[in-house]
Amino acid sequence: MDRLRAFQDSVPISDWYAFADDIADMRERGVPDVLWGGRVMQFAQTSGTTAGDKYIPVSEQMMRGNYLASLDIFAHMINRGAHPGRIMGGRCLFLGGSTDLEYNEHGIATGDLSGLVTPLIKWPLSTIYSPGPSIALISHWPDKIEAMAKLALDQDIRFISGMPSWALVLIDRVIELARQRGMDARCARDVWPNLEVFVHGGVNYVPFVERMCRAFSGDPDVDFPCRQELYPASEGFIAMQDRDNDPGMRLLTDNGIFYEFVPREQIDDDNPEAFTCWQVEKGQQYVVVMSTNAGLWRYVIGDVVEFDDIPDGHMPDGSLRSGTGPARLRIVGRHRHFINAFGENLIGEHIEHGVASASVATGLTLGEFTAAPVYPSQTSRAGLEVAIEFQACPNEGQLRAFRDAFDRAVRQENVDYNTKRSDDVGMAPPTITAMPMGTFHRWLDAKGKLGGQHKCPRCANHREIIEEVIEAVPMASAR
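RE: above sequence
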């Protein structure tokens, strides 16, 4: 405990920007012994939910930790009844990002984390890995999905790993291709009768449950026999689900990463409290802080979690507490406003810039606005809704022009949103909901927050705010 306190007293809690200059020295100039011993030769490029592109150091030790985590995935699946003989008897399909890497004059590689970890796929997984290196290199997602679908249609797929939104797109396309061949295909199991495992992570799965069940079995109540949620990040592999019908994910404490947890309400304090996993309390929200084996020390990853199980351990006052562990947690959000329902990684600034650009392009005068995800259903596709006050109610042509200008502006600013919107495959065009001026004031007034410093959030990763705002529109006003 004394060593822990000395570490916490000596190293401040920081976000990515505190490391930006050091990372630039390491990545762009190949400077050794900066944040981590020796030269770090690989960097993961990621579009953060609180900023633009970031570069995350990936050391050999971190790669080793990721490799061990990949073995844990299969170990937990086996423990939960997914027999390795059945899985290995067919193909495992991975819906990862592009494996294409860029190398600078120092031989340092930068690219999607998928491209960095693909070389970790060794025998025997290499013999059953799909879609293979050539398709994995494709960066344009519509082309990649099409190539995967055509390949996988003739393969015995037994395991799928990827984001739910893209898994749905792939399965829909495979079923369509199967029907073109004359097959009576209603769901994935009609094409792949041995499919039993779906591994996913990165976004909230709850809105996808019904559609994923239908896509798998044709029945909204029949899920994959083994579905496993992961908590991966570019900074390191954090946790994974290890029990059936339990959303809690087991914290990985043996892969070279040290975790601390800061109470959400303290994350912006100058000297916030930070607790280990055996010191946290159930039902409280904590921001995840990581010290990685690639040189990010007390790094704020930005996710907010709650614990369902806590291990035995010493409390800050020295007392010993009996826990219910091992440590299991759930992701409940981010400590900044954002939208990441489908991997689009939008923040308030993206919404603001898009609205401003569309206002200039169309000449429409605007008031307040907010944005939220549109979850897929049987009648609608995944997308984004922006509710906006207009001074004069726009006609359909003006709304369409505003929508297209907004969409273009956000796509130019955010690579992840652009990927999900490519050729309208992953996300539908945004929905613009027109409201009369004063709508947001009525909403704030109804909540007792009119005036002072109260503001309307520019975006949220749920629909509670936008639905409340829309309900504040007078009945005589058109949506």
